[in-house]
Every structure is written in C-alpha cells, then in structure tokens.
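User: what does the whole thing look like in 3D?
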Amino acid sequence: MTKVKARFQMNHRFLVSVSGLIVLIAALSLTTMPAAGQATSKAYTAPRTPDGQPDLQGVWTNTTYTPLERPKNVTKELYTREEALEIIKNAADVENDQTEPGTILDVHYDFTQFGLDRSQGGMALNLRTSLIVDPADGKIPPLTAEGQKRATERAEARKRMGGATDAVQNQPLSVRCIIMDRAGPPMLAGAYNNNYQIVQVPGYVMILVEMIHDVRIIPLDGRPHLSENVRQWMGSYVGHWEGQTLVVETTNFNGKNPFQGSSENMRLTERFTRVSDDTIRYQFTMDDPSTWTKPWSAEVPMKKAIGPLFEHACHEGNYGLYNTLAGARAEDKKAAEGAAKATSK
Amino acid sequence: MRTKRTVVVAVVGVLLAAAPLGAHHAFSAEFDVKKPMKLQGTLTKWELINPHSWFHLDVKGPDGAVVPWLIEGGSPNQLIRLGLTKNSLAVGTELVIEGYLAKDGTNKGVGRNFTFTDGRRLFLGGSAPGSGESGIVVK
Amino acid sequence: MLLKTVMHREFYQMRDRFRRSTIIPVTVVAVLWLFVTAAAGQAPAYKAPRSADGKPNLNGIWQALNEAGWDIEGHAAAPGLVTALGAAAAVPPGLGIVEGGPIPYQPAAAAHKKENFEKRLTLDPEIKCYLPGVPRAMYMPYPFQIVQTQKFIMMAFTYARAVRTIYMDDHKEAPADSWMGWSNGHWEGETLVVDTTGFNDQTWFDRAGNFHSDALHVVERYTATSPDRLLYEATIEDPKVFTRPWKMSMPLYRRVEKGAQIMDFRCVEFVEDLIYGQLRKQPGK
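Assistant: Here's the predicted 3D structure for the full assembly of 769 residues, as structure tokens:
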C-alpha cells in the first residue's frame, strides 16, 4: 500500500490526487478477510509479545460501509469481490460529491475537506452483506415480550422528556460527549475517527478508543467481575486467551447506553484474532434473554491505520452543544414574541 | 464536482447503517439552513480541538468596522495524522468561507467550504471548478 | 574447677582479643563506608525488576497520598466552598509538594493566581469535569494505571478517564495544543524522564488556583524506590508566568489490593446542569 505524505503549506496544493477508483483499490487490502466457512489455505500466526501473547498492538480502524443488518433487498451472505468494490466506490463517490445547497445535509462542514469521510480514512474490504453473521439472515433476532415492553416504555419516557433541544439531557450521548459507539462495547465505527490503539503488557490488554479518549484495560488474570451492584457504562470486563484469540467477557452494564435496545443484564463476548499483518477479526456476541429470543453475533474487520491518535477532548471543546441549546432558546423567544404580537392585535 | 445526489443519498443511507445522521441533526439545530452566508476574513486563531475545530476570523464589514467571527469546522485529528500542525495555517491568512449562520444570532457559522481568496480549497478534496481533483485515501 | 575457670577465662580473653582485633575493625570499616557512601549521596539504590526490554518495570496501579490536589503549596486547614457540606468539603491541611519556597510567580501572574483563588468556584476546571492536565493528574486522589511497553508508556487516570500517551521513540513535536500535553519519554538508568509540551492554557495545578500558560513545559522523573513506591519529581517551566523553573516532588504508592483496577469516573453527566442548566427550556415558553 502506498503512503502519500501530505504537506500542508499555505501556498501549496495540499495533495496530489489520483482517480477515485484506483486510489480506493490501493487503499483496500488485497487480502480480504476470510469469510465464514472459508478456511484459509495458510493459517496466519501472529507474532508474539515478549510475554507470549499473540500481538494485537498498533493503531487500527474499523471504518466500514457495511451495515449492521442485511439490507432489505439482499438475501445472500457475501457479495462478490466486484460487487463489494462497486458498492464501496459508489459510497465513496457519494461522500466526495457535494450536498445540495439549502438542504439540511448541506448544513455541515464538508467531511472530505477535513479528511473525515470514510473513503479517505482507509478500511478493510469486507465481502459481507451485513456485519451480523448469526442469525443466518443477517438480522437482529426478534424481541422478547419483555424487550418489546421495555422498548415501548423507553419511547414513552423519551417523549415525556420533550424536544431534542429542550434540555442537554435530551441530546444523544455522543453529542453530550459522554460515550461514543466507537467505544461501546461492542466497538462499532461511526462516521469518522474510528481509531483504536492497542497496547499489551503482561496481564493486560489495553484498548484506547480515540473518541473521547475512552480506554479499557482488560485484565487477563481470570479475576471475577465487579460485584453485581456496581454498574458501569462499559461494564466490567475480563479477558483470557484461547489460542490465537483474545476473549473478553463483559457484564455489569448500567443500562444507560442500551446497545440496540438491550437491557442492563446484557452479556457481551468479544473475540479479537489477528488474521494477517494488517487485519484483526473482531467478533462479538450479544446475549440478553430479557431482550432477544436468542443471542446474536457480528463480525467487523479492523484494519491497520496510520497514527497517532490525537487527544479527543470532547466535553472540553463542546461549544457546539452550547450553541445548539442557545439557538433553540433564541428561536423559542422569537416564536413567543411573534405569538405575543399576534394576540395583541 | 458539485453534483446533486439527494436521491442516491437516500439509497446509500441504507448502506451507511452506522451513519452520522445524528451529527447532521445536531448541526441543523445549531445553524440555520435558511440563512446561508459567505464571508471573507483574516484568520486570528485556529483552534485545533474536538469534537469540532473552530476558526476565529476578523471580518471587515461594509462600514469598515472589524467584527470577530467564529466558524465551526471538522475534527482536526485525521489532518494531524496526515502531517498538519498548528503552524500549517498561519495567523493572518485571508480565508473565504461559505456556510450557514448560527441560530442564536451571534457571529457564528458553520463552514461548508473553506477556500483561500484565489479559490483554492483548504486542506483536502477539490471542489474548485475545473480542478478535476478528488480526495485521496492515504494508505 | 580451677582449670575450668581458667579455661573459661582464657576463652573469654581470646574471644575479646578476637573481637578487638577483627570484629571491631570490620565494624569500624563498615560504619566508615556507610558514612562515605551517605556523604556521596549514594545509599544502596533500589533496582526495580526488569520488563522484557531490560528497563525498570513501572507497570501497575499507582496513587499519590497527599493533599496536593487541594493546594500544591503547604497550607493550613480552611473552610470549604459549600456551607451545606461542612467539614466534608473543608480543605484539609497539607505539607505541600513544592520544593524550595513559594511558587515563583511573576508579579502580574501572582495577582492572577489570587483572583483565580477568589473565583475558584466558577473557574476551577476540575469542577466542570475538564481534563486535569499535567502534573495535576498525577496527584488527584484516585488511582491511575501505568501500562508500559518499549514504544509507548500509557497512563490511564480515574478522574474524567484522562489518558496520557508517552512516546518512547519516534519523538515528535506537539502537532497542536491539548489538555494533557504531548509527552516524549526516555530512560536515564533507573529513571523514566518524560518531557511534555503542547499544553493549552486551560488547566490548573490544583484547587487553589495555581495556573500556567500555553508555554508550560514539564519535565518529570519517575524512579522506583521500593517494590511498591515510586519517587515522582517534576520541574515546571513557564516563562510567561514564573520568574524561573521550579520543582515539585512526592512519592507514588502502589495499590496492592487484589482486583485493583481503574473504575469508570465519567463525570460529564454530573456537571451538565451546572454548565447548560440555564439553557433548559422553561415550561410555558
């Protein structure tokens, strides 16, 4: 893969470009991640850390265009290589094209200008039609009656809170800079900055998530989870190695960031396996009998990415949230004044 | 190349399952789609911060008075990975910014497009007419 | 019986002669050696166990045990800011961790510090759950974890889930300013030396309003002094605020309890009403 060093000088054109498709192919690894059921002809053995753990260290990205669930009009599990490349090219073209002035989508800085669009960050070539690999239809299993009830109650509670800009607590957790889906767990990519740094020492695997500098230092000593009454945003996590795979089990979620409608009793199992020099296969299984009729699993390739991670001090720099709320109050005031004028006539 | 892709965006929206629609939502709540703006000013400071960077500009009004403006841009993190530093964009640079005004009536806006006065685009991607350039994937 | 006494007496005489001729000189030499080495400042140095790359192994969970978080200078007990919290929020007395006299502020900066102190309820960044910066993160009263490899030494803090990345090779200049700074580290024998620049001017040193500018430059030294203790030293330099560099030092203690870990102190949701409360939509408006 070629690496082009950009030089950001005031009087220079910043980057020399190449036609989009060629660049895209160069960006994607020619070694696609082995899909389920396809044995690799030569099993890859990861190098070892000094204390003998398979080495997962480095900077990785899980950027993807692949949806969590299989799209409605798709029935197969895998695209052909050509189909997948075509989809990615189209998606990248859409990101590159400009939005229409005067539309909601246009009220945003241009992702491509800041290198934040997915096509510029690099990603693994994933032939899957969905991230979900089990059940076989690529969709989240049906909700249980309890799960359905909880979903309804949550929607009603949300309605009672009022409009999205009525109070800071009505905004998404990501906008409030409390937690991002990049951190999860499970760890899923968002629009940009889907970067992770893994560092390993005897007894621990540390995963630093770029966004909001979230970090899990996963102990490998087989300790028990935290006691039941201690609930955390990212739960209580314990890991161990099974051959080449790091298995991380997480419980003790606090229920305030319910992944896909789950309850605080959800049990998450994540598996990290390095399948090539530049790819980690990340799999996760969601087990929550009070929400879904059966457990379900997904698989996301993580690709080696350029570093470094830069400090994502989200809450500290969150002027935008303040402006959003101030803007909503300004509009309320204008509307109230307009209404008062109308009634006084 | 400015092409209209509103229809395609709807279809691709299915693909972008983990899509930033939430982010768009927040921006259209912060800035007014009915108030597009274009201004030219001198950079007095560029805050390379998260979740979004902020460009401080001195803008000269028609009456000659200089008014400070604050324009929201993207996270600088990927640009930093590509070699950008706080010294890359000098204080005093003249910038032309198209975007939308803040809803709270203050001198703030979101920068849809940042260019130099000669029309060259800041940072990455080429939307300058006839440039024929597009963003590059650096890997 | 007389023979036994004589033999005992001779034995003790021999033993005493032995003691005088051998043990006493040896003892004297040993004592002299200790004086000499102490005078040279070289008590027998503790050497930490090695990590795989042959460097002192500083991995583990550590915590400062002092009152520097309240005020890094020596201070007496004082009332807290919130009357309703009484003694629970009072300022405890502390010896301070600053060496060699008061912090050498420039005159205008000294006035600024005084103003910070008077307005600390609204100005202290800790109250708003903002990242603590360096060195403040090192003596907040909660554990932090050092994750040390050859290329990176990471520090993960309890408060606000702050993180420091220390680059042990491939040293670069800070690309932009940040709350926790940009850290380049190297080893000098038993000591980890960390050189940090690229700070913004937003953090404080403590709850008493001691502050810095974006010209802050911190050089820290971490040295293991026993299996469960580190010596932490930091030299603070800021030509916009202080008349000269100055130093702080303190021990860091290992959290040895089974299952010790960094727990989740995500504090943003605890300060949202404080920061955004006045922007809440009022009923009927």
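In plain terms: Chain C has four helices and nine strands. The radius of gyration of chain C is 26 Å.
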